[in-house]
From TrEMBL, chain A:
Pfam families: ABC_tran (PF00005), BCA_ABC_TP_C (PF12399). InterPro entries: AAA+_ATPase (IPR003593), ABC_AA/LPS_Transport (IPR051120), ABC_transporter-like_ATP-bd (IPR003439), BCA_ABC_TP_C (IPR032823), P-loop_NTPase (IPR027417). CDD domains: ABC_Mj1267_LivG_branched. Signal peptide: none annotated. This is ABC transporter ATP-binding protein. SUPFAM superfamilies: P-loop containing nucleoside triphosphate hydrolases (SSF52540). Residues 25-273 form the ABC transporter domain. The keyword Cell wall biogenesis/degradation does not apply. PANTHER family: ABC TRANSPORTER ATP-BINDING PROTEIN (PTHR45772:SF1), CONSERVED COMPONENT OF ABC TRANSPORTER FOR NATURAL AMINO ACIDS-RELATED (PTHR45772). PROSITE patterns: ABC_TRANSPORTER_2 (PS50893). Gene3D superfamilies: P-loop containing nucleotide triphosphate hydrolases. Keywords: ATP-binding, Nucleotide-binding, Transport.
UniProtKB/TrEMBL annotation, chain B:
It comes from Aliiroseovarius zhejiangensis. Keywords: Cell membrane, Membrane, Transmembrane, Transmembrane helix. InterPro entries: ABC_transp_permease, LivM-like. This is Branched-chain amino acid ABC transporter permease. The keyword Transmembrane helix applies.
Length: 276, 358
């Protein structure tokens, strides 16, 4: 059994001076089936504190399914999810969120009818404790909490440079900004593990550069642990500390970007190989 | 003095998140409160209170309640009439069972009982959505009305099957029964409206409101962020039914004085209140008031014009009234599907830029 002590056992310092701590999330022999289709087949990997962990693979490899397993949306038929040194019992997605997991979605999942600020404030919901009666009266605990959390959200807004759209309903925003607001909402939760599902899908070069900068800064300044799925190989190789490669639901590679780049299985999966 | 926020800088988050961030709005609100509390009661008479003010204020409470459920939390309900009936009958049983307790407490308790009933009928919302939920709440409507007609205990075995509000007073002023003065009727409704509108505003601007709106806009995303859908939906049903229950209690005890479930709280009531929030604006406190005002005032206005102004016979005018109100609703939904609240918002946005719109 993993204990708190060996979780921190082998922390190390990266070339750019960041400290990577012990294992935050450990996935052990995960298998996920939809009827007869095996989406994920016996996959194990871990995510360490403070690192940027990428999951890559061709379309249909099971990357998003993997993320959905981590965020509790899918229940794997086999395997165990260990989070912060404890085995996670089967739980609902909102319970997983309360443990300190936040995520963004491949297709933006913002609340269109609410303003940017309200969307980001929603990310704080696990940190706000006022009950319904205190909220109905407002004065006192509810207001105090609202203002304290507003301050945290404003810091996130500053960080992601979206001050000017604070009061705009999300439905009116262009795609690139929506992606940023969704990131802000996840970041506002101050998660111990942040999952990003294709944060750069459909963006132009400048937007990708901005987003990469935010991801790196987030990791650097707040020490946020990030697991991300991305198709842009340049981005993945530049950003991530370690990469998991999936193909047809199986893990075919795991290691630093350089190791993965030179892995024959990975090259085969991406470039194709003659089956004889 | 212009209607704008330029130069009106906010230096704290408290100032920034207030209900009326623009000074002119704030002053308008204070003037409205002043007129409502200190001017209207001195001029009000029986016609005005019975034709306009009491129904407007009571429907505004019911519309607020339904708007919390449908407009904010996105759960369609056609059971509003039935829940109003729960409030009315709960209030009646409490009034007759505990005559020494204040009517105000009875009305609030009636709201609480309705909240419990509302939660019970809200349970299906966890499994079914949209139209199907509307049909499930429709079942609540018919079941509740049937129940209150069928079980004599609810109407204290009276021969007529009606419930009659006994005379009760607050601070020595009679507020229910036939001897109620116009201003007392108006005042008790007004106090409830103001307090409940304040509560609704507090709930909807805080985390509760965000959870509701999250469930409405994208329930899966809300759940992954950490909203418990069960609690969010049931709390919306509870708060909504609390409001609707109080509206029902006031409708019976203060406004009608005597009621019969099928007649006073039939399916028509449910639709009327649903129209109010659609016309007023879903997901807006102001919209609840605007919609209630529209649906209450329009028929009164038309009647005065057609019968009083043009001398038509009453029955003909009544039929035309239906057609015109119906036509207006259709027209409204085509021209401004987001309701009066959206018109009001657009006007305000234009005003902020006036006279230099670019």
């Amino acid at each position: 059994m993993t204990t708190a002590t060996d979780m921190n056992a082998d922390s190390y310092v990266t070339a750019d001076g960041r400290t990577i701590g012990g294992v935050v999330m450990d996935l052990k022999n995960i298998t996920l089936r939809f009827g007869g289709v095996v989406a994920i087949k016996d996959i194990s990997f871990d995510i360490r504190e403070g690192e940027i962990r990428a999951i890559i693979g061709p379309n249909g490899a099971g990357k998003s399914s993997m993320l959905n397993v981590i965020s509790g949306f899918y229940k794997p038929q086999e395997g165990e999810v260990w989070f912060r040194g404890a085995k996670r019992p089967p739980m609902k997605p909102y319970q997983v969120a309360r443990q300190g997991l936040a995520r963004t979605f491949q297709n933006i999942a913002l609340f269109d009818g609410m303003t940017v600020l309200d969307n980001i404030m929603t990310g704080r919901l696990n940190h706000m404790k006022a009950n319904i009666f205190q909220q109905a009266i407002w004065k006192g605990k509810a207001e105090r909490e609202e203002l304290e959390n507003r301050e945290i959200c404003e810091k996130v807004i500053d960080f992601l440079e979206i001050q000017h759209i604070r009061k705009t309903p999300v439905g009116r925003l262009p795609y690139g900004l929506k992606k940023r607001v969704e990131l802000a909402r996840a970041l506002a939760a101050q998660p111990s593990l942040l999952l990003l599902d294709e944060p750069m899908a459909g963006m132009n070069v400048e937007e990708k550069e901005d987003m990469s900068r935010f991801i790196l800064d987030m990791n650097d300044e707040f020490g946020t642990t990030i697991a991300l799925i991305e198709h842009d190989m340049g981005v993945v190789m530049d950003l991530s500390d370690r990469v998991v490669v999936m193909d047809y639901g199986k893990k075919i590679g795991d290691g630093t970007p350089d190791e993965v780049r030179n892995n024959q299985d990975v090259i085969d999966a991406y470039l194709g190989v003659a089956h004889d | 003095m212009f209607y704008r926020e330029a130069g009106d800088f906010k230096t704290s988050y408290r100032d920034d998140s207030q209900t009326f961030p623009i000074r002119l709005d704030r002053m308008g609100y204070y003037v409205l409160m002043f007129v409502a509390f200190l001017v209207v009661p001195f001029f009000i008479n029986d016609y005005w209170v019975n034709a306009v003010f009491a129904p407007f204020l009571i429907y505004a409470i019911a519309a607020l309640g339904l708007n919390i459920l449908t407009g904010y939390a996105g759960q369609v309900s056609l059971g509003t009439g039935g829940f109003m009936a729960v409030g009315a009958y709960a209030c009646y049983k409490l009034m007759t069972g505990f005559p020494e307790v204040s009517i105000v407490i009875h009305i609030i308790l009636a709201g609480g009982i309705t909240a419990i009933v509302g939660v019970a009928f809200g349970l299906p919302s966890l499994r079914i959505k949209g139209f199907y939920l509307a049909v499930a709440t429709l079942a609540a409507q018919f079941f509740l009305v049937w129940l209150f007609n069928k079980v004599p205990w609810f109407y204290n075995y009276s021969a007529s099957g009606q419930i009659n509000a006994p005379e009760r007073s607050v601070f020595g002023v009679i507020v229910t029964g036939p001897n109620t003065e116009a201003w007392a009727k108006y005042m008790i409704c007004l106090v409830f409206v103001v307090v409940l509108a304040w509560v609704a505003r507090n709930l909807t601007r805080g985390m509760m409101g965000r959870k509701w709106m999250g469930i409405r806009d994208m329930d899966i995303a809300a759940e992954i962020i950490g909203v418990n859908p069960l609690m969010a939906k049931l709390s919306a049903f509870a708060v909504s039914s609390f409001f609707v229950g109080i509206a029902g209690a006031l409708f019976f005890a203060v406004y009608l004085g005597a009621a019969e479930a099928g007649e006073a709280f039939g399916i028509n009531k449910s639709f009327l209140i649903l129209f109010m929030i659609i016309i007023g604006g879903l997901g807006s406190i102001f919209g609840s008031f605007a919609g209630a005002a529209f649906m209450v005032l329009m028929p009164v206005f038309l009647k005065n014009v057609l019968v009083g102004g043009m001398g038509w016979p009453t029955d003909l005018a009544a039929h035309f009234e239906f057609m015109i109100v119906g036509g207006l609703i259709v027209l409204f939904l085509i021209v401004e599907p987001h309701g009066l609240a959206q018109l009001w918002r657009l006007t305000k946005e234009k005003l902020r830029l006036w006279p230099f719109p670019h």
